[in-house]
Amino acid sequence: MFESLTDRLDNAFKALKGEHKLTELNIAESVKEIRRALVAADVNYKIAKEFTDKVKEKALGTQNVLKSVSPGQLMVKIVQDELTELMGGQSVGINLSGNPSVVLVAGLQGSGKTTFSGKLAWFLKNKKKKKPLLVACDVYRPAAIDQISVLGEQIGVPVYKEEGNKNPVEIALHAIDHAMQHGYDVVIVDTAGRLAIDEEMMDEISRLKEALQPQETLFVVDSMTGQDAVNTAKAFNDVIDYDGVVLTKLDGDTRGGAALSVKYTVGKPIKFVSMGEKMDTLDVFHPDRMAQRILGMGDIVSLVEKAQEQFDEEEARRLEKKIRKNKFDFNDFQVQIRQLRKMGDLKNLLSMVPGMGKMLKDIEIDNSAFDRVEAIINSMTPEERSKPELLNTSRKKRIARGSGHSLEEVNLFVRQFDQMRKMMHKMTKSAPMAQAPRQHGNGMKKVAGTPRKLRKLKKKKRKFR
Length: 465
Description:
Layout: H1 3-14, H2 24-40, H3 45-61, H4 71-86, E1 101-107, H5 113-126, E2 132-137, H6 144-155, E3 159-160, H7 168-182, E4 186-191, H8 199-212, E5 216-222, H9 227-240, E6 244-248, H10 257-266, E7 270-274, E8 282-284, H11 287-294, H12 300-310, H13 313-324, H14 330-342, H15 346-350, H16 356-359, H17 369-378, H18 382-386, H19 393-403, H20 407-430, H21 451-464
Parallel strand pairs: 1-4, 1-5, 2-3, 2-4, 5-6, 6-7
Antiparallel strand pairs: 7-8
């Protein structure tokens, strides 16, 4: 995500490497490189110029303060704060105040609008505990209704559609009545993709908004189109005055122009960002976290949140007990793999760790490696999964045949699993067990230690009596 912009900004900060303080000269040189990086990322020159002027002004104002901080670190902090402000300052939630709440989704052709509608339904159902209804109002694109029907089936969300009806306004109004009768609390209306210059289609989306009076109107933008997307977003906003922007395809060759410019140009917040085709790859947009990722600082908060979504406290306690007793088995390992896979793309997750983004830039991480591991585990008997020590050569040969892998691959996996198991046991064994002091019958608190120490403590207590 934004690799090119991150590299260029990193080069801009290198101009300050070895400097002992900020001066007008090195600030000017660094700011010039930052402006070039933004323009190369397809940010409008006027916005880039205004941004760097603010950075320069702040940098000049901090020349004689924070002497313990290096010039490079100070410049990074200033740029981070300004990037956060440029992208909106803080996250803005979705308005779900209606009964039912109506969310109108608009966007250009090919922007990923229908896929986003499915992702939003998944997000509201699984993270907000809502009962959403998808509405198929794209009556023009061939197979559009089939696409949203497949997505709805995939995530377990019903889709309201009317075969043969070519009036989107009628379909949407009927869908709201249907939602009220059947207890759906959010109605997500997927509209037809359109062009800003198409007056007829723009008139249709205006009529839809006027008829539905939605609590939330979201405009979907393909982030790979850069400044063109921002110009189109402005044209749409002039017509329908939407409430927020959704950036899709952030996992592609994204330069960053749309993410950095859209709030400044349109005056509307970015509410969601979407990566990949999987339905669980929709995230609330946090300007401060995005600024950190652009600057190569990672995003630990988002990583922890993703982990917490899959975290089961009771399961963690059970697992810790098994690891302490060196009873961690293939069943436990498979559970951990599945939880990790639910968190999303592995490379994207690792890039959230500070410093890992640059290290992984040119490295391809094959998520299918998990498939190989699961195939091997699934080829074991229940007894073998729970007792790894049973795996002898003949059993491994059978597992290799059953999983479609070589004996060498099975041996390698079992060896690596055994090493990991020993290491985990060693780490938990060396960690101190938290024990709360317990009250004894003689009024003394139980103290961990040798019997000799306990006897000395008792003698001291008798002496003071």
